[in-house]
Amino acid sequence: LQVENGKILDPIDHKYMVLNDHLKEFSLEPNRALLEDFAYLNNSIKRFFVLSGGYGQNAAAFHLATAFTVSRIIRNAHNPKDVWKESSVGMIFSQAKCVGKSLSLYLLALGQGVPERVNLMFLSGGNQQLCGTSIKKMQESLASTTGVVMIDDPEISKSFSEFLLQVQGRLMFGSKTEGMSHPKAATLVSSNSPEMARTIGRVLRFNYLPANPDGSNPHDEKQLKDLELFMEDKKGGNGLLLAWAIVYFDLWEQVFEDANEVVEKVLKGLLQNLKLQPRWMKGVSSMIIALTMLRLSCGKTPGICDYVLFTCQEITESEIAGPSAMQKLEKNIVKKIRKQSDPILTWLHPSVTVHDVAGNKVPGIAIITSVVDAFPDVSNS
User: Superkingdom of the source (predicted)?
Assistant: First the structure.
């Protein structure tokens, strides 16, 4: 019971104090009206979708990143012991600059109720040594919240990739001097570089396109600015995604298992030849369900078929593409050398001079055409 001024408070009016100063830095402040007014919450979600249409051809990728954030908030709260079985790492990716990756992270951080841009749930990536945030501090942030920690533009190094594996595995980490802890949060990063091979299957990637086919700006800057102002407004959309997760938590519990079974079957049917990891499938399934519920809650059509197809096309791009023609060629050359069916120098010349595209003479390696033609996965690619 809580008593104030001689009266027992209703549970909805209970107040709590955080005595750990470190945890105070992770406090979230959603607009209270979003929690108290069901219609206002749904209308705010609708406005969020309308304004985020300013991303143009990248709107679908942004919506999936939004759904990833919401699904991780709910799954971390609902099923914390088993989330290691699902992909808990998202990546907003584009090799191009100025396509809205950092803005997307900021908007989604605001959607969680992060009160301002300078916050321990919204980190600078950098190279984790000379600039940005160190791996140790990232670990501390992820061990202190069950939300989604945003990491902007990290260098996708070997050490950072190992860190992402820790995030996914949810196992203990630390040292004798620093003590032990374990990650509780999911993470969403923005990057100009794709994930390294060791983390493929654990990372859900949202690919942003650089420009419209005609070369024009893919974004409506005014619309995105309106979205930013709306999400920054403490009496507007700040904390919108967190509030939605809280209000719809019970409904999620009721529908998730059945919906998840259906979506996973669809994904497995579409992607059966890619041999994707089960944790990837589970992560995508949760994300699709979250997006469907978000859209339905504000009166929009689910669009689930479109989003499933988009997910299959975009998020699995690296898996579908497979090795390049050069990688296939190298593999076939090594295989032929190991077979020793023909003397190497009868079909491969290790030192020749050729002209590059600019007409300059450069050193090269020559292979007899008939040998290359015998490599079917190269000659047909």
Answer: Eukaryota
